[in-house]
Amino acid sequence: MDKSNIKSLVRMAQQADRHVLYQKSVQAPETEIELMIETYREIRGWEPISLREDFCGTALLATEWCKTDPQRTAQGVDLDQATLDWGREHNVLDAGDDVASRVELVCENVLKVQQPKVDITCAFNFSFNGFKTREQLLAYFEAARKGLNDNGVLVLDVYGGTESMDEVEEEREVDDEDFTYIWHQESFNPIDHALKCHIHFAFPDGSRLNRAFSYDWRLWTLPELRELLHDAGFSSTHVYWEEFEDTDEEDDYLEGTGNYREVDAIDNQESWISYLFAAV
Predict the structure, then answer these.
(1) What is the DSSP letter of 58?
(2) Do residues 166 and 155 both lie within one domain?
(3) What is the maximum alpha-carbon separation in the chain?
(4) Which of 173, 202, 206, 265 has a CA 20 to 30 Å removed from the CA of 148?
(5) Does residue 254 share a domain with residue 229?
C-alpha cells in the first residue's frame, strides 16, 4: 500500500486533538476579555492589569489577556499538569517571549493560590459548578476574595434556562471548522441539582470523539451564587446579560448580539449564559 494514503484512511476523530477542538468550539477569549476590562472600568473607574484564571485548562484566556497590553500579567491555575503543559507549548510559548514572560502557570488547587494578588480573578466555562456543597463553594469564594487586590473583582460565567435541567443533546456546526460540537446533558437530579454532562465531537467522515470532556456538577442558580458571594465578603454583585435581536418575526427567533448589559430583572429563556461580577 502507498504510505502516502495511509493517513487518509485514519478516521478524523483519531487524528483530532481534543484541546484544539475545545478551544475552537467553546472558548471566546476576545469577547470575555473585552467584557472584563469594560466592566471593571465601569465598577472601578480604571483599567485592570493583572488576572488570575482559575481552572485555566490550556490557559488560552490568560495568554490572550497578556496580548492586549504589554503591562498586563496573568496567572493560570489548574490541577491537571498535562493540560497545563499542553497550554504552555501551544498557547503560552507560541505567543512569543514577551507574552510568555508575563504568564505564570501553577499546578495547584485553586483554594490554595492567593499570591500574587490580582485585579481580576475569573472562573469560566462553568468550572465552579464542580463544588457541590455550599461549604465547598463558599470556601472557594473566600479564597478567591483573599487573592484579590483591595479593588479586585471576581468574574463567573453562569448558565441556566428551562433546558438547563433537561436531558438534552444539542449539535452545533463550528464556523469555518470541519467538525460538529455536541453538548450532551446526560442526567439532572432536581433534588440536589446534580448534573452530568459531556462534550462530543463529530466529523464529516462519520467518526466521533465521544466524551472528549465529561463533567459531574451541581447546577448553581444566580440567587444562590449572589448570596454565597455576599457571605464570602464581597461588597456587591452585578449580573450582565447578553442582548438579543429579533431576526425572524415569524418564528420569534432571537439571536445573541455578543453585547452584555447589567440587569436586575429579565425574562427567562430556554437557555442563557450570563456573567456575574463580584466586587471586593
Answers:
(1) T
(2) no
(3) 69
(4) 265
(5) yes
CA 139 to chain centre: 20
Pairing between β-strand 194-202 and β-strand 208-218 as defined by DSSP bridges: antiparallel
What letters, b where the CB count within 10 A reaches 16 and e where it falls short, cover 128-165?
bbbbbeeeebbebbbbbbebbbeebbbbbbbebeeebe
d(CA 69, CA 87): 20
Would you give the DSSP letter of residue 163?
A: G
What is the total count of domains within the chain? Answer: 2
pLDDT digits (tens, 9 = 90+) for 147-175: 999 999 999 999 999 999 999 999 999 98
- Do 34 and 40 contact (CB within 8 A), yes or no? no
Query: Which of 72, 87, 93, 155 shows the shortest CA–CA distance to 120?
Result: 155
Q: Which three cell numbers stand for residue 237?
A: 454583585
Indicate yes or no: pTM above 0.85: yes
Gap between the Cα atoms of 24 and 204, Å rounded: 17
**Alpha carbon 259 to chain centroid distance?**
17
Output the nine-digit C-alpha cell for 180.
Answer: 460538529
